Amino acid sequence: MMKNTMKSLCKVNPGTVIEGKWHQNRYRIIKEIGFGANGVVYLAQTGTKDVALKMSDNSMSVTSEVNVLKAFAKVQGSTLGPSLVDVDDWEHRGGKVSFYVMEYIKGPDFLTFIQQKGKTWVTVLVLQLLNDLAVLHDKGWVFGDLKPENLIVMGPPPRIRCIDVGGTTLQGRAIKEFTEFYDRGYWGLGSRKAEPSYDLFAVAMIIINTEYPKRFNKNSGGISELKGYIKQSKLLLEFEDIIMSALQGKYQSAREMRLAIIDKMSTPSKPSVGSRQKSTSGTVRSNHTSKKRKVHSSHYRISGWIETILIVSIISFLYMIYIFGQVY
């Protein structure tokens, strides 16, 4: 919990003007949009521009988060997190409050977007997220407190963005912040060491969360309990092997998990053994089986292409519906 002194210093009313001690930039507070262990985040305005302003009495925490945002900014073409606008101090009630200002990322969070647009968007957004995490991990960081509330979908076109970098931790260190439901340590499935597999566990829990938006409480914990929830969902069963691998730390990188999802989407389901016809004649059966194999082989190749085209078509169709909804 946040200390009462910090909570008091950082609690400001809408309309309050924050003026930086060093840069003299002024920000008018609109409303509170976030509250955590290391500070309070407000929607603010500077001129006519909306920004997000985070303040804390812990200057070390501010410095750490600013360094993360600066590291993100060095990644060319990346949309890992909000861009940094300003860093300063505010003298308030006889004390000093450190703050930084960042890009205001506007849009629904991950779960809200899925509820509004449909679960067919889950894989699209997860693939985007894994791509961003791969870049983050390459730079030596782990996001840590990865959860739907920290994922905003901007658009059009729909694009997932990570916010609240307070939990972002250098690889090899102990995770700074976490939320129990998405934390592998809470489920007894690993340590809280900052490594790529920690984030990938959280990605798997986010996928599960789409089917259980109100979440669920831990009973016994462990992989068997989570597997039970997966078995109850048709959508989760389609990606059971991938979700289970991520929960058990079997993926070495976000790219590996991302490729597994793409492969799953583009690979046709094989027909069951019971659906295959049997021949009673030995010679005829041999010739018939040989022909069937050729037909099935051709069928699989054609089906693979058809399903790939269908996936692309579905995503394009969803995007058109989304754009149409934004315009009209």
Word description of this protein:
The protein is an alpha+beta fold and 328 residues long. The protein has three domains: 4-103, 2-Layer Sandwich (Phosphorylase Kinase, domain 1); 110-266, Transferase(Phosphotransferase) domain 1 (Transferase(Phosphotransferase), domain 1, Orthogonal Bundle), CATH 1.10.510; 273-327. 44% of the residues lie in helices and 18% in strands. It contains ten helices and ten strands. It has helices at residues 4-10, 59-73, 110-117, 122-138, 196-211, 222-231, 234-238, 240-247, 254-266, 282-327, and strands at 17-19, 26-36, 39-46, 49-56, 84-92, 95-103, 141-142, 151-154, 159-162, 169-170. Strand 8 (151-154) and strand 9 form a beta hairpin. Helix 4 packs antiparallel against helix 5 and helix 4 runs antiparallel to helix 9 (254-266). Residues 272-286 and 288-309 have low confidence and may be disordered.
